[in-house]
Amino acid sequence: MSLRPPIRCATPAGVWGYPDRTLTQTKFPFWSAIIILSGSSVSLPAGSTVYVEIRPPADETWYVTVAGGTRLYPTSGDSEARLELWDGTSAVNLYVASRIQITSAGYAPYYISLVATVIITNLIRCRLALYNGASYSVYGYYGYSGFKLSHPQWSPVRTHNQEPKPWRRPLSKPLPPEVAPLRRYAYDILGADPSKPDEYEPAIILEENTPLAIDPNTGQPVELLTVVVRASVLADLLAKFRTGELDPVEAGYEKYLDKWKREVIKLP
After folding, report:
1. Pick from 55, 139, 231, 242: most CB atoms within 10 A?
2. DSSP letter at 90?
3. Are strands 31-44 and 200-214 parallel, antiparallel or unpaired?
4. What is the model's pTM?
5. Hey, which bits of 31-156 come out as E strands?
């Protein structure tokens, strides 16, 4: 019995047909440039989820490893980190770091971190979600590096796949009286409660799509920041601000309170 040679099908110009591709071909490198390690830290107000979106410029495909996490000091609180595919409307969870709950004081900070590799484009990018369940502001840390790919990536078309839910939708439930004046910033947010990632919760968007970094060649933002807090959590925080039980500066809300004051939004 003899082995027949592989059947070669006609391929468009510039597309390799196996077994024609070899390591010595000039077209072999799959990357056109290296994305040098980039990253920073962002403030996570008390009770909030902070999203850091990583979005390649138009017509670029990136293969990157993304890392991120939070640090909680030894007191009561909880934290979570997850990485999502994000198209600007719907999010799909890719990786979730183990959530931790701190119930008693210790002698050193507690850390939670996530590392994952993704391929992203200008349309289908990714965002790192960092949740701070403590009553004080902490910092979230993130970084990424990898390659700008040379060729478009093949993407399969899924059949019988459930459409992802929109990340936010119009508010459907009444707001707590303490945050009712913030209605213009209120939406039903999917996964605003980290313990219920598939459910909507009334939430306040503290800020959205704040540029953190730009591509020097195109001037296009490649890192964007969005900060969200559940309406019920914000109502509790505002009550503690009024009684002096909690300091707005320590909780990370001073700039938002100042912003609402400039907008003549009167909170109870």
Report:
1. 231
2. B
3. unpaired
4. 0.82
5. 31-44, 48-54, 61-72, 77-86, 91-96, 100-102, 110-121, 125-132, 138-149
CATH number, domain containing residue 255: 2.60.120.510
Residue whose C-alpha is closest to residue 114's, from 98, 126, 100: 98
Q: Which helix (DSSP H) or strand (DSSP E) does residue 240 occupy?
A: helix 231-243
In this structure, is residue 10 part of a structural domain? no
Range of the domain at 88: 31-151+165-262
Q: What is the pLDDT along the chain (268 residues), one digit of tens a residue?
A: 445 554 444 444 444 444 454 444 445 567 788 999 999 999 999 999 999 999 999 989 999 999 998 876 655 567 888 999 999 999 988 887 755 555 555 545 566 788 999 999 999 999 999 999 888 898 999 999 999 987 666 666 767 666 778 999 999 999 999 999 999 999 999 999 888 888 999 999 999 999 999 998 889 999 999 999 999 999 999 999 999 999 999 999 999 999 999 999 999 8
CB neighbours of residue 57 within 10 Å:
17
Q: What residues have CB less than 8 Å from 195, skipping those under 6 apart?
A: none
Please report whether residue 90 resides in a domain: yes
Burial of 177 (0-12, 13-18, 19+ CB in 10 A): exposed
Residue 87 has φ and ψ, to the nearest 5°, of: -110, 15
The answer to whether position 224 is within a domain reads yes
Domain total for the chain? 1
- Please state, in angstroms and rounded to a whole number, the distance separating the CA atoms of residues 180 and 196: 23
